[in-house]
């Protein structure tokens, strides 16, 4: 892409895009841009297709619109005690502001309003005649506004008539007049009931001997929610009723039924606001409801918002490494270290610990403790060989996740010892052989060495070698003794063998990533080792293998100096994996974790201009 007034093109996507659409982000507002697209295959990059006109980065404004369903009713009729639920969908840019109002009064406290970017609902529970009237729903943004009105009728007893006035009062008669009720209860007034009593002729009162508390059944509990499920149980939670009916709430009754059944059965009773229903059948669908209880009896039931299928939830495993700074633990040789990591997942994940590529098991020094919410690895009497990357793998039916913690064990190096013992018989000469790392063939260097040292020349720079020496006398040749692997490169540039006695091989590089694929080549990249072993990393060796084999084959003929390498000569249709070794003056690191298996094939893409 490029800005329309500059003409300098920039690449947008860092990696090849396979799909035929792409979202460009982080653009400047109100700026004009031009775009073009090119297809790429194994042969290279094709011609570009440019969008005809420049595009300005501005929001597209549209006035609010109401999405009215075909079954929309202008008038809603409900009985007293039932629930009212009004639903309206809308759209507009920017997202409109949605409001609900009542024409003749304010919305009551029982009105529950839910608003999203595309719809809004108004719910009034346990409605009465005061909830009747005209409701107005309005959406508004910078481009305009839209409104729609609903009429709600609540079928209930009418309100009181009045006020009463008198007319034509005589000794034997009186004419009464009154106004019709303001609220008719949603139906026409059939007739009125007129009663009378004498105001002055009252008898002697009779009082009760004991006080009476006026009580009634409580209101239903609020919001019965499904909190959690397993393959045989469900956890329910709810809120206290709005009022207790004048008597303390003494408990709650849970009921349930299978989906499609008409028969409710008792699931349990409790005084708490949560309850676990057990003994359910896996993969069956259930409905639940709850009643509150006081001294006057049980309330009306409150049902859960929806039914629930009884099954174990599938939650991908994860681990919390925030308690380990930079995912690095450092300790001294001989001390203990502990890796304590909180874990989660449903079902409870299976835990596996590895040091580099070696799976860890409990020994006298290694202890592994795992519960459903954390895992702990403890290593006692640590040695330098315990250094490296520890991989925690969590696996359940929802997926597999691997987490890495690096441990560095520091301490003084051990003493240097001589590798060769000489017998009492006079040695006539020594035989020196060499072997390149990654091969099994030994090559003769010199078979008539008279002294106990030799300078080996004509070595390949940065190649790792192993040497072995045999002594020879008049009785024959001894068994050979091998040297440690060593690299033919000194940090100060001498092309002869030298080794920093205070250095150790580096830690492994990171797991390689395949970022480009074609039919006969792949490009991989990795990050340098966390610990260089006390000597600068001077190169990397790459190994590859086919997915279905166990034989790793060295790829590069000489060390690679960058953390990036292109592997060629692959066979189309086969899957390959790669691993990396880091090289310093002390030798090769352990192998990195193998990359994921990648199929050698040309990328498939299409450009529609």
From TrEMBL:
Tell me the GO BP annotations in alphabetical order.
cardiac muscle tissue development; sarcomere organization
Q: Which GO terms describe its cellular component?
A: M band
Q: Which CDD domains match?
A: FN3, Ig_Titin_like
Q: Which domain of life is it from?
A: Eukaryota
Q: What Pfam families does the record point to?
A: fn3, I-set
- Please give the Gene Ontology molecular function terms for this protein: structural constituent of muscle
Limits of the Fibronectin type-III domain: 1-60, 220-313, 401-491, 508-603
Alphabetized, the UniProt keywords read: Immunoglobulin domain, Repeat
Name of the protein described by the UniProt record: Titin
The residues covered by the Ig-like domain are: 64-153, 313-406
Task: Please name the Gene3D superfamilies in this protein's record.
Answer: Immunoglobulins (2.60.40.10)
Which organism does this record belong to?
Answer: Varanus komodoensis (Komodo dragon)
User: SUPFAM superfamilies, per this entry?
Assistant: Fibronectin type III, Immunoglobulin
**InterPro entries (UniProt xref):** FN3_dom (IPR003961), FN3_sf (IPR036116), Ig-like_dom (IPR007110), Ig-like_dom_sf (IPR036179), Ig-like_fold (IPR013783), Ig_I-set (IPR013098), Ig_sub (IPR003599), Ig_sub2 (IPR003598)
Taxonomy, top ranks, is: Eukaryota, Metazoa, Chordata, Craniata, Vertebrata
């Amino acid at each position: 892409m490029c800005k329309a007034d500059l003409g300098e093109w920039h690449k947008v996507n860092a990696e090849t895009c396979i799909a035929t659409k792409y979202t460009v982000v982080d653009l400047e507002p109100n700026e004009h841009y031009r775009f073009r697209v090119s297809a790429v295959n194994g042969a290279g990059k094709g011609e570009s297709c440019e969008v005809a006109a420049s595009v300005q980065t501005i929001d597209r404004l549209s006035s609010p619109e109401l999405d009215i369903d075909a079954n929309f009713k202008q008038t809603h009729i409900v009985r007293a005690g039932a629930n009212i639920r009004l639903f309206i969908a809308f759209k507009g840019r920017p997202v409109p502001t949605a409001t609900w109002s009542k024409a003749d009064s304010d919305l009551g406290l029982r009105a529950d309003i839910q608003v999203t970017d595309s719809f809004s609902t108004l719910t009034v529970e346990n409605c009465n005649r005061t909830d009747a009237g005209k409701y107005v729903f309005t959406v508004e943004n910078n481009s305009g506004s839209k409104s729609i009105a609903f009429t709600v009728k609540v079928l209930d007893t009418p309100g009181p008539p009045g006020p009463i006035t008198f007319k034509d009062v005589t000794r034997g008669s009186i004419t009464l007049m009154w106004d019709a009720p303001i609220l008719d209860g949603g139906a026409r007034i059939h007739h009125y009931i007129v009663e009378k009593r004498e105001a002055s002729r009252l008898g002697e009162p009779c009082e009760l001997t004991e006080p009476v508390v006026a009580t009634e059944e409580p209101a239903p509990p609020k919001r019965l929610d499904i909190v959690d499920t397993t393959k045989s149980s469900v956890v329910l939670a709810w809120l206290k009723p709005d009022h207790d009916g004048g008597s303390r709430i003494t408990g709650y009754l849970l009921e349930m039924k299978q989906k499609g059944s008409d028969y409710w059965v008792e699931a349990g009773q409790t005084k708490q606001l949560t309850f676990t229903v057990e003994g359910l059948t896996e993969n069956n669908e259930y409905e639940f409801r709850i009643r509150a209880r006081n001294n006057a009896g049980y309330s009306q039931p409150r049902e859960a918002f929806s039914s629930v299928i009884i099954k174990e939830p599938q939650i991908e495993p994860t681990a919390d490494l925030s308690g380990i700074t930079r995912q690095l633990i450092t300790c001294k040789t001989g001390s203990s270290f502990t890796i304590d990591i909180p874990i989660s997942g449903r079902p409870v994940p299976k835990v596996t610990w590895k040091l580099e590529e070696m799976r860890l098991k409990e020994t006298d020094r290694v202890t592994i403790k795992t519960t459903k919410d954390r895992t702990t690895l403890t290593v006692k009497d640590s040695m330098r060989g315990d250094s490296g990357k520890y991989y925690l793998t969590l696996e359940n039916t929802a997926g597999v996740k691997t987490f890495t913690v690096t441990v560095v064990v520091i301490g003084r190096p051990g003493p240097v010892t001589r590798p060769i013992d000489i017998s009492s018989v006079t040695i006539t000469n020594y035989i020196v052989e060499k072997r390149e790392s990654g091969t099994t063939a030994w090559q003769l260097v010199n078979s008539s060495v008279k002294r106990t040292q030799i300078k080996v020349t004509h070595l390949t720079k940065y190649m790792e070698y192993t040497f072995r020496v045999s002594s020879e006398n008049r009785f024959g040749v001894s068994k050979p003794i091998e040297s440690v692997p060593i690299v033919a490169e000194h940090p100060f540039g001498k092309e002869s063998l030298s080794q920093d006695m205070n250095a150790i091989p580096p830690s492994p590089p990171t797991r390689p990533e395949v970022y480009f694929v074609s039919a006969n080549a792949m490009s991989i990249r990795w990050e340098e080792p966390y610990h260089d072993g006390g000597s600068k990393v001077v190169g990397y060796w790459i190994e590859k293998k086919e997915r279905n084999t166990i034989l790793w084959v060295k790829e590069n003929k000489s060390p690679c100096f960058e953390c990036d390498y292109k592997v060629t000569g692959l066979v189309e249709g086969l899957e390959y994996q790669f691993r990396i070794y880091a090289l310093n003056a002390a030798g090769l690191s352990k192998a990195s974790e193998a990359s994921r298996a990648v199929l050698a094939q040309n990328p498939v893409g299409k450009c529609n201009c």
